[in-house]
Design a protein that fits this description.
The protein contains 20 helices and 15 strands. It is an alpha+beta fold.
């Protein structure tokens, strides 16, 4: 399913014919008609992106890169473009492999470029002091392309292009029925490598079986990974590599990378999906919400099609093959509806500090860490959370436990933390009574009421002393074991009330909440993990109620 979707993407979007691909190159080897190396020309340029300067390699249309995994590297060279070992002779065996390969394809080709390249290889490794220009380790992995008469030797050189096309389309040896296309094709034993964020610098394969430990069903490391033909293998690798390099369709989610695309003609859907995934700040999201609501109902909105097929692929780097966290193909309206439902579950009273109505995933991940940085989050959590949101599943319990751990450690209960707890209670525990957007003053849920009571006692201390410390000293234990903490807190509150000229407001608040608790056993010895979440939501709701100006029959309340 994944491979066939990627092959379709390649066929719908690619302007490059079979056997060719867009490859990024760092340097050009300038040669003359006798094959002499004249210069090594830098093709990389600096590009300004916001405040950052990014070094970009030059994209050229070049022959499909040959995967080398599981093969003897000196036996496999690439045509027209390769690293310094093959192109500069830093490894003599690999240079000889490149010479033989280019001679096989270009011998007899009547063009000055072909003759110059053959002369270059036949002369042996160049004497040009490349090791003085670059560190040898760096030169061994840099990609080089030939340049002749101020022109790159690539797809645009017709005679050289025809030589490669003949080689690529030649069916040598056995043919199979390709599992992807259903056509007879030459099987490809090793598929191309992909370069994913956080992965191996040399690239990793999505499909491979190049070691005994990866094999199954009687196959060995010398057998092909699957009955996938050369065309399909090259097509899906090309499509995937293009998506990985496309910042519009590739998003980092913690340690994972999300790739998304719509069927042909779905650029508008891809754009609104990106906005829903990383929402703008509050001032800019009203129009987005309106369009998303219309799509979620199955209607068309401007240029957006609710019934368009949409694809989501979440990948993770690994020491061997690239790991697939999840793959989902579905109707665009269903995916938007699931995202909308997530945002609805996350909706909670604002705290005056979080500038988002729709809380983005990176901010959720950041709240699970000590330093508040999404890059420090559990590397698996981003993909797990994203999969739950997009497919409408239950939230990962790892997320819930991480938020509870940060709260117990004394971290501030921000809007994002409270919203995550609320969303988990709704989706994972079917809670509805206490998971309102703002304070539910009618709820008698014991854990929720205890959270509200803790907030009242905190506000009372702040009024009396001009500061508060019960949050840092007692919240964690009150949240887990209220029976051992609340009697002490209520005793302390009597001293705080005594310092106020008028304590009527706070005493009424305490009395109303205590009346909602069981008079015989108002404070349970322990709260379960779900009730700890209800306690946190109650605390947050009550605190935000204090920070909002209200008119309660003349009673005075705080303002933020």
């Amino acid at each position: 399913m994944i491979v066939s979707a990627l092959v379709k993407r390649y066929e719908d979007q690619s302007e490059v014919p079979a056997g060719w691909q867009k490859r990024e190159v760092s340097y050009a080897l300038e040669i003359d008609g006798q094959g002499r190396l004249l210069d090594v020309i830098l093709l990389e340029v600096d590009e300004k992106i916001g405040k950052r300067t990014v070094r970009r390699k030059k994209p050229l249309t070049l022959p499909q890169e040959i995967p080398r995994a599981g093969l003897k590297a000196y036996e496999t060279a690439n045509f027209l473009c390769d690293d310094g070992n093959y192109m500069l002779g830093l490894n003599p065996l690999k240079f000889e492999s490149a010479r033989r390969f280019h001679e096989r394809l270009l011998d007899g080709v009547d063009s000055p470029q072909a003759r110059a390249i053959l002369a270059y290889f036949r002369a042996g490794p160049p004497e040009f002091p490349a090791d003085k220009l670059f560190d040898k380790k760096k030169a061994a992995i840099i990609k080089y392309v030939f340049q002749f008469d101020m022109r790159h030797v690539d797809y645009e050189v017709n005679t050289v292009r025809r030589a490669w096309d003949v080689h690529y389309s030649a069916n040598v040896g056995e043919t199979i029925r390709c599992l992807v296309t259903g056509e007879d094709d030459v099987p490809l034993s090793v598929h191309g490598k992909l370069h994913i964020r956080g992965g191996q610098p040399s690239g990793s394969s999505l499909i491979s079986a190049n070691a005994e430990s990866f094999t199954s069903y009687g196959k060995t490391k010398d057998d092909r990974a699957a009955d996938v033909g050369k065309y399909a293998a090259d097509a899906y690798v090309s499509a995937l590599e293009t998506l990985l390099k496309d910042q519009r369709r590739s998003k980092p989610i913690g340690g994972d990378t999300l790739l998304y695309w719509a069927e042909k003609g779905g650029e508008a859907e891809e754009g609104i999906f990106a906005d829903m995934l990383a929402p703008p700040k509050s001032d800019d999201d009203a129009e987005l919400a309106a369009v998303a609501a219309r799509i979620a109902r199955g209607g068309w909105a401007e240029e957006y099609r609710a019934d368009r097929m949409f694809y989501l692929l979440c990948l993770s780097p690994n020491a061997g093959r690239i790991s697939v966290r999840f793959f989902h193909a579905g109707i665009f309206a269903d995916i938007i509806r699931n995202i909308q439902s997530h945002h609805s579950r996350m909706e909670i009273a604002p705290d005056g500090r979080t500038p988002f109505n729709f809380i983005p995933l990176w901010l959720i991940l950041a709240e699970t860490t000590v330093k508040g940085s999404a890059s420090d989050a559990n590397p698996l959590l981003g993909g797990q959370l994203l999969g739950c949101v997009l497919k409408g599943g239950r939230y990962p319990i790892t997320l819930y436990n991480s938020i509870l751990s940060r709260v117990r450690a004394g971290s501030d209960i921000s809007k994002t933390k409270a919203a995550v707890v609320k969303a988990v209670l709704i989706k994972n525990y079917d809670e509805s009574e206490v998971t309102t957007v703002a304070l539910n003053e009618e709820s008698n849920n014991k854990a929720y009421v205890l959270g509200r009571l803790f907030s009242v006692l905190e506000q009372l201390q702040d009024k009396a002393n001009g500061s508060t410390n019960i949050r840092s000293r007692y919240f964690a234990s009150a949240n887990a074991n209220p029976g051992s903490v609340f009697p002490t807190l209520l005793s302390l509150s009597m001293h705080h009330s005594a310092k106020l000229d008028n304590d009527t407001f706070f005493e009424k608040q305490k009395g109303r909440l205590l009346d909602r608790l069981d008079g015989v056993a108002p404070f349970p010895a322990a709260l379960g993990i779900d009730d700890q979440g209800r306690f946190i939501v109650g605390y947050y709701h009550q605190r935000q109620w204090f920070y909002t100006k209200k008119d309660k029959g003349g009673e005075s309340v705080n303002e933020q």
